[in-house]
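Practice problem: ATP-dependent zinc metalloprotease FtsH
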Amino acid sequence: MKFSWKTLLLWSLPFFVIVFFIWQGFVMPTTNVNSNIANSRMTYGRFLEYIDMGWIKKVDIYDNGHTAIIEAIGPELGNRTQKIRVELPTGSPDLITKLRRAQIDINAHPNKSINPLWNLVNNLFFPILLLGGLAFLFRRSNSAGSGPGQAMSFGKSKALFQMEAKTGIIFDDVAGVDEAKEEFKEVVTFLKQPDSFTAVGAKIPKGVLLVGPPGTGKTLLAKAIAGEANVPFFSISGSEFVEMFVGVGASRVRDLFKKAKENAPCIVFIDEIDAVGRQRGTGIGGGNDEREQTLNQLLTEMDGFEGNTGVIVIAATNRADILDAALLRPGRFDRQVTVDVPDLNGRLAILKVHAKNKKMDNNVSIQTIARRTPGFSGADLANLLNEAAILTARKRKQAISISELDASIDRIIAGMEGTPLVNGKSKRLIAYHEVGHALIGTLLNYHDPVQKVTLIPRGQAKGLTWFTPEDDQTLISKAQILSRIMATLGGRAAEEVIFGNTEVTTGASNDLQKVTSMARQMVTRFGMSTIGPLSLESEESSPFLGRSLNNNSEYSDEIAKKIDKQVQNIVCECHNKVIKIIKDNRILIDKLVDILIEQETIDRYMLEKTISEYTVVPVKNTYIQQL
Ligand code: ADP
Ligand code: MG
Ligand code: ZN
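Answer key — structure tokens:
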């Protein structure tokens, strides 16, 4: 069974009840009267008679005059001195007189529980314990996600948004997103010198929406603006608006803007706004009442203040496409700033920022790392340098060198390194497969150069061929795509040529997937086939979260057949050409495979050197132009 505080408490409740009764029954009376020495009792009337008879020797009064322990001796008591307990009625002042007249020793004992506080604690002990236990249980169930505990924080959002003036982050910490930075510097100017804008009749924008993929520095930018503008900064995450109870989100929005207006000029930052700002009335399963109310409140609030009150709302999302259109219209988030995955220069700048506090070897070229990491976001790059630093520390080295950086890049892209295969047929087959990729990639003019070929497994792959793009390619030509298709087919083609048609393996399945997808996109998206320059399919989008649920293919069955035919043509043509290149260069391939099996890894230098030593049958560029 899983241990949990909740079950422990539930099970221990009966125990507390028992403890309580023991407490009430034993502990409390003994603090008041020494009852253990007076087991026998006597009525008040009999006591008075005893006084008259002169049988009483001593009276001890306890309990504020409610109880007396008497020492008596008499024939009824067997002529022995006995201690007897007597309950005294309230208001019997003449008793004392009577006792004094009979010359009996009287002694009054104050309550043992002198401290009234102690008394209070005694009486409150159990209720407090019970309430405390219950509150504890509620809190536990609350943090588990739902439950009645949330009722306690109803509409109270004070703790949820923070006013942080000092994030410790400045614009210099954000690199590679220059347009967004410019935009934000402008916002800082709005806040610092609003007059220069209002003087010429300009309206200060109310909202700036930051859009971009995860890890590109949106939250970082918002923190930097807080650090630079020196104004109060209210930060809340969109998901914090969404609560179990309908209306809580809306009241939180109201609360937030009220606070903001009191503190103007200031910045309100709503991170991950898609949590509330999603298109209303769509999505599978119908609309969400609570979210709609929250969004409506947000819209109302944003309309409710004038542009010049000094409140600027910044929101961030990575899904601008699913945001409600009403949020995006001018007058709310007037400005949209796109923060995209950085290009080569951007990566270089980000790497420099994060390398500042790290010890790097002198021969490390940040340029090379930036080149090797196309598609990495700012967060990926920060992670990369950190991984390399960890690896360096593990190797007990003084500074991060290129080998740790390389290993970290490989690991982030392709996964953990596995143990190399033992020499054998399958290792040979994998070697031919990888050399196939590498050789075709090298021989084709339009292809990126090979960085290295390796037989050390990583992640799912048993062997890998790494290519480095020469420069950032935002526009890719038809010839380049065809070269990629051919290089990707090189692995399977090598298996076929060397081991025969029946010996090919499943290892190429991932390659074939990529090839088919590339070929299909050439036909349906880029107009690179004989069907003509038509856009027949749009980029795939997730049907679960987005707006459009409609099928995004808009063509007839006839066109569908043509598409399939074209895709098949492209792939088969490329395949045939690759087979020919491999057959033409068989001697070179055998040599490369021998080296690869012996050394496990061939780098670009070694590869080019070996190729230059052999007579290579050149690949005609017409191969590609014919397609
Ligand atoms: P998101 O866009 O998802 O909000 P974050 O701003 O949270 O991304 O970025 C996460 C981390 O990645 C940052 O704390 C920072 O270390 C790093 N990072 C991301 N983008 C940049 C950038 N442009 N410049 C410097 N560091 C960045
Ligand atoms: Mg973020
Ligand atoms: Zn392959």
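Discussion: The first helix runs from residue 5 to 32. Students who identified this feature from the tokens alone can consider the problem solved.
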